[in-house]
Task: structure prediction
Amino acid sequence: MKQYFDKAFSKIAVLGSGTMGGQIAAHFANLGFEVIMFDVSEEVLAKSLAVLKKLKPTPLASQSVIDLIRTSTYESMDILAQCDFIIESVVENLDIKKQITEIKKVKKQKLLVGAAVGAGPKEFDRSKAIIKEGVDLIVVDTAHGHTKKVGEIIKFIKKLKNNNLRSKTIFNIIK
Ligand SMILES: NC(=O)c1ccc[n+]([C@@H]2O[C@H](COP(=O)([O-])OP(=O)(O)OC[C@H]3O[C@@H](n4cnc5c(N)ncnc54)[C@H](O)[C@@H]3O)[C@@H](O)[C@H]2O)c1
Result:
């Protein structure tokens, strides 16, 4: 498998060293790739590595695989720039205000922007708020697409669309 991917990339960055990031990094390291896990601080990274070493069942093919996983904060963006494949596994659930701030930043650059909502009770307000900001793509992010609440949030978003809050907004609902 590594030989196949070797042609495409060699150095992999994983942004976020939590449950997903740590184990994604482990699997790439299992294949022999050099992996660099990024997170917000050295403390978080040290804790994540410690968790990774102790996980049961272990995602590490052997204990020495851990040596192939390097860690970094964003102090030096050069390290990130050297990576030719980047996977993001950063924590979600920004509060609505913070999410709006991020949307505004992208809109200011006159770029298309997507944003995710969940299916919980707070997500109705989130949907309204992000639509008001003119997001171009809405992702209903769920691992439980068959549930009633997912259907309800999708209906709600469609209704907002039909009410034409922002005529130029393109809605894509990904289940
Ligand atoms: N855990 C699961 O079973 C699971 C399943 C499917 C999808 N996901 C998705 O994967 C993503 C990560 O989930 P997780 O369970 O690993 O979360 P987690 O909370 O275990 O880890 C997230 C990590 O992201 C770090 N982080 C925050 N801002 C960062 C930044 N700017 N750069 C780098 N790192 C940053 C946090 O410090 C933390 O270590 C989420 O979007 C989640 O919805 C998780």
Summary: DSSP finds seven helices and seven strands in the chain.
